[in-house]
Amino acid sequence: MSAFALPALPPRARASATHEVTLESSPLRFSPLPGTSFAALGYNGRIPGPVIRLQAGQRLRCRYVNRTPYPSTIHWHGVVLPNAMDGVENLTQAPVPPGGAFLYDFVPQNTGTKWYHDHIGTGLMRGLFGILAIDDPRDERADVDLAVVFHDVPELRTVDAAMMGVSKAPMVDPLGSSELREMAPDDKMGDEVAYVAHCVNGGSYPHNPPIVVKVGQIVRLRVLNANPTQTRYVRLAAHRLRVTHGDGNALETPVEVEALRVGVGERYDAWFEVRKPGAWLLQGLSADPAAFAQAVVIRTEGMENVSPASESESLEGVSAFDYRVAGEAIAEPARLGAPDVAQHFTLAGGKYGSNRWTIDGAVWPHTPKVRVRRNDRVVLRFTNKTDMDHPLHLHGHDFSILEIDAHRLRKPLVKDTSLVRANGGTIAWSFRATSPSGRWLLHCHNQIHMMDGMMTELIYLD
Ligand SMILES: [Cu+2]
Q1: Of 26, 70, 237, 293, which shows the fewest CB atoms inside 10 Å?
Q2: 79 pLDDT higher than 60
Q3: pTM here?
């Protein structure tokens, strides 16, 4: 079993028990394959950081010690928690200085596959991320429960160029992906970051440890896309995947797909059954010739010398997870009733040579804000006028996706991060303002777009 199996919970772990963890960030030489070495940052000496597993209702006390040369905070992505624990620099807490420490202490109010990551500058890009799984006692049981993190090593000098909109790094989305279809032939991209290594769970194939399973086992993969800028498509060779949760929230009805489409910061719980002996690659698909290394072997015992089955890097003819399919979209507008707060935002900017990604024409902190009172029903709509999808993330809340591109979802998807389609795509979210009071960020999780201003906040007035 790999190091990314979820740590076992004691059989009678009391829901009231406190889980104590120390996370220490520090500089790290990261070698995902032999002969490479990158100046990175890691939690507890590794990338990704340790898997943290909690029982529903359990309290997490995480002592964070910052041994990097940069100010830092930890954001608990997808967790409904007290605002002061949300880890946003200069909004919910002061940055933790080099050599400093901070105690994160909270009881998550929701469950599922979440994650944690640094929230300042390039901390996340350099390796500061990990999975947080909060057990829902209503979930079916898996024989094998694994965290699977897709992550990449950026070429950091391309980050500055991407922020200025003049990067020369190419798009690497796989053939057949909606990202490529959305691009006009003469589009000039200036906002791509280049990646020099492609990893799953801390290493590049075939140098990362295999996942060993047994025939007959039911396997649950908790897949996270920790890449800071790129949507990741994921396939398991010769298998279909049954998706039960998006961002840790149960789908009304699980859906079977050939590939996952995982936006930046999104998570999916994908299941399969081991039906026969064999070896198969779990792959991140890409048009980058080096990206075949973003894979990990899943194999049964005794199959270590078998060359694993793999799939093409193209998506042509492949069914990938799609919000509209999973949500059973129908061509009529959503019935929104009379929400207490309704706002409509336009996402724009990002032209070649521009360092502005905007919400209603403004960049953070000048963007229009959302102000709510406790228990308000809130509807937020977004229209995306840019040529890239945006993975929008709301801190401290789960929202329901009610409508996409004028199609109502008969089975709304509950998420904390959702892609908004490029070139006029629209999406509508709904939620109740029942999270703890405070200031909650709402932003594009593409790190370049976020740093270039595509960010606002939801403010509780009471
Ligand atoms: Cu964006």
Answers
A1: 26
A2: yes
A3: 0.95
